[in-house]
Structures are given as structure tokens and as C-alpha cells.
Amino acid sequence: MGMLRYAMIFIFAVTVGCSARVIAKNPDQPVHYDQDYDYTDLHEFTRKLVQSMLSKKPISETADAPIVAIYGLTNRTDEHIDLKSVSDALRAKLHDSGKVRFVAKDQREMIDKEVEYMMNSGKVDPATHIKLAKQAGARYMLTGTLYSLAKEQIPQVRFKKRELKWYKLTLELTDVETALIAWTDEAEIAREVRKPFIGW
Known about the structure:
With 200 residues, this protein is of the alpha/beta class. The chain has a single domain, classed as 3-Layer(aba) Sandwich (Rossmann fold). It has 4 helices and 5 strands; from the N terminus they run H-H-E-H-E-H-E-E-E. The chain has a 5-stranded mixed sheet with strand order 2-1-3-4-5, covered by helices on one side. The longest helix has 17 residues, at 2-18. The two termini are 39 Å apart.
């Protein structure tokens, strides 16, 4: 009976010790668990580059909100990083400023299908048909590239080693009419982590 009691206490302790603990975090507060790219970097990149674009020519000196098409970001790092989330964040913040408008480039195929159905299916009230050739053209094209560099400290007689991780996101706003770069800027992030040579 005593052994059974101790066994039950042991199982209970292991179960409680292995249970997950969930803690809500404020996504606006910086959090880093290691030196790799994370959501805090996404916020920092978008904050810096949106501020730069809105405060410099041509956007800062344009009376009406110019139309922009985002043609994606290129990942030149050795990590699998979803840059669609970066371009979506940039678009949301720029659009909220009221100083930039965007064409729904990724939705054009679905728009064409909807227009085809509307005009040719015979099932749509003609009074609700849209006017053709009224889509807005983009004045500028937004592109960018993410780079990274990792460096490790040369082994020395120390208990810990240091690793440095550096990221740079470069954006370009290109004038579609002239093919000239109307604006460009870059944001950099660097972090150092110290790891023990032995242990966790």
C-alpha cells in the first residue's frame, strides 16, 4: 500500500511538472528567445521603413495618395522566413497612413474571373455590371531584399561562446513610368547571444 501511494505521488509530480504553461505576450513588446529572426524584428523593420518612406520624397511631397503595387520581397538569407508577412505589414501601415494606395495585385486573377462571370454568365443583373477598363494603374512598384550574416567567436579558453546575427532589409520604390528608383532605404538589426560551450 505504501509503494502504491509513493508511485501515485511520483506520477502526479511528473504530470504536473511536464504540463505546459501558457503566458500571453504583448506583440508590441520586444521578445527574443535566441538570435534568429522573429516577430519583434518584423515590427522593427516595418516601423523604421514605413517612417522613412512617408517622411521622404516622393511620398512626402505628393498631394494625392499615389498608387503602389507590391511585387514581393526576396529572401537572401539561409533561413526559411515568410516575407509575405513583412510585405503585408508594410502595406497595412502605409495604407493606414492615408498617403499611399495599393492595387490588389494578387487578386487580379480572381477579379478577372468575377468580371467574366458578371458579363458573360447571363445570371447577373445588367444594372449591377461594372464599367470595364476602369482599374487603376500603379505609379510605383515596391520591392525589397532581406539579407543576413552570422558570425561565431573564435574558440577561446572561456566557458561561453558568442554568436552574432545580423539582418538587413532593403526596400526600393521604383517609378513605373521612368524605371527610376524614387526612394530606397534599409533597416538593420543585430543581436549577440552567449552560449555555454557545455550544457544547455
